[in-house]
Design a protein that fits this description.
- By secondary structure, the chain is an all-alpha fold.
- 80% of the residues lie in helices and 0% in strands.
- The chain is built from seven helices and no strands.
- The chain is globular and about 55 Å long.
Length: 208
């Protein structure tokens, strides 16, 4: 939980920097979705490499050694995924409030309200389904790969939705490029997720 809160807070602080480097919120969100998909897919590979499978950290380690192992595991295998996925919601909020909507300020309030509602529903429903259904049935690594696939699909949809707002000829070219990019990310996530099935698998048993 500590790593989650630190990563999400850091993502919120770094969002303006990402926007400055990307140039606009659409490019930044495309980057965040693609990176979140790929990092989710590769997280099982990093974790099993760093921890020799799914072995837990030994509590008998000296405090300094235990802290180092924890920081190394979190910094390399967990925090990057959480950090990049933490960019998504602030950037969605930025896109929802950017520009002057045709219907005036009330339209912005409605879009933000809908976004917050979906975020809250997703946070609650995702946690319930992950604990009671997805992870017990698929195992931990496949569950994480499924999360990466969700980001990849969102990346593909967003890429096609905002292909280009310039000239029609250039929009057609960009749309083809975006389709290729979206399919490449999705294919990579599927391939890595399939390979995750060969890794030491952590399965959460159903509770009574």
């Amino acid at each position: 939980l500590t790593l989650v809160l630190i990563s999400l807070g850091l993502a919120a602080l770094l969002t303006p920097l990402l926007l400055a480097r990307a140039g606009d919120s659409h490019r930044a969100l495309r980057f965040a979705l693609a990176a979140a998909a790929l990092l989710c897919a590769t997280q099982p590979l990093l974790f099993t490499e760093l921890r020799d499978g799914v072995n837990i950290l030994a509590y008998e380690l000296p405090p300094a050694a235990y802290a180092w192992e924890l920081l190394k595991l979190g910094g390399l295998a967990i925090c990057p995924m959480l950090l990049v996925s933490g960019f998504v919601f602030p950037l969605l909020l930025r896109n929802a409030t950017a520009g002057t909507p045709p219907s005036g300020g009330s339209n912005v309030a409605r879009r933000v309200g809908v976004l917050l509602a979906w975020n809250g529903l997703g946070g609650w429903l995702g946690a319930e389904l992950a604990e009671s259904l997805i992870t017990p049935q698929l195992g931990l690594w496949y569950a994480i790969a499924l999360l990466g696939l969700g980001y990849a699909i969102l990346f593909l949809i967003y890429d096609l939705r905002f292909a280009n707002d310039a000239s029609q000829a250039k929009a057609v070219v960009n749309r083809k490029s975006n389709i290729v990019n979206g399919l490449a990310v999705t294919s990579a996530v599927l391939a890595i997720g399939w390979f995750s099935g060969t890794l030491p698998q952590a399965t959460v048993l159903k509770t009574e």
